[in-house]
Amino acid sequence: MFDTHAHLNAIQFEEDLEDVIQRALDEGISHIVVVGFDQPTIKGALKLADTYDFIYAAVGWHPVDAVDMTPEDLQWIEELADHPKVVAIGEMGLDYHWDKSPKDVQKRVFRQQIQLAKKVRLPIIIHNRDATQDVVDILREEGAEEVGGIMHCYSGSLEVAKECMDMNFYISFGGPVTFKNAKKPKEVAKEIPIDRLLIETDCPYLSPHPLRGKRNEPSYVKYVAEAIAELREMPLEALVKKTTENAKRLYQISD
């Protein structure tokens, strides 16, 4: 299994990180992408990628913290794109739930990172909260289909998922697809083409059922895979094989 979006660089894992990683290996996790979204978490993601063969890094700037990003930070992210274990730029996007960063600042930082990703030719990881139309519009206006990427922890409609897939994006599902009341993610996970489907944890957040409320971790991605396999009425092994192939293709990982 391939956990395409994890935050093992979060403080929630400081006490028992090695145990968490061992549990992931024991559960058959073959690859993890650890996502950095500000200076400390980017450094943490790179340290983990340098330490563990099966861990890779994504580097970007979270929209909630867009107001903190300096031109020097953007330059640093561009330089890090040359690191052999950096496989994507992100997470980036728009978040209108929190108001720390004004919308115009979020949009500017989002556009800058898409332009950077096109320059370094890496896919992008999209964070969208309460901002779907603006996210889709900016992806289209900036020509993001040139690099493609992931709509991370997708919770939108099937129609918007189709728009994103038309722009060369994969649709990734995490813990919420296992929740009983999650009608939209279940519908999309069931209906989209399997060659555009990914799984993730977004740990330590969004633990799947039956572990809601507990700290999430990569080994729990199996609950996401099981839920989607059941929705699609296909064998778990086949879903795991296909989603792993999809992630390796997107992230250009050959092993």
From TrEMBL:
Gene Ontology molecular function: any one: hydrolase activity
InterPro entries named in the record: DNase_TatD-rel_CS (IPR018228), Metal_Hydrolase (IPR032466), TatD-like (IPR001130), TatD/YcfH-like (IPR015991)
Source taxon at top rank: Bacteria
CDD domains: TatD_DNAse (cd01310)
Keywords for the protein's UniProt record, in alphabetical order: Hydrolase, Metal-binding
Keyword field contains ATP-binding: no
Pfam families assigned to the protein according to its UniProt record, in alphabetical order: TatD_DNase
Record protein name field: TatD family hydrolase
Source species: Fictibacillus fluitans
Top-level taxonomy: Bacteria, Bacillati, Bacillota, Bacilli, Bacillales
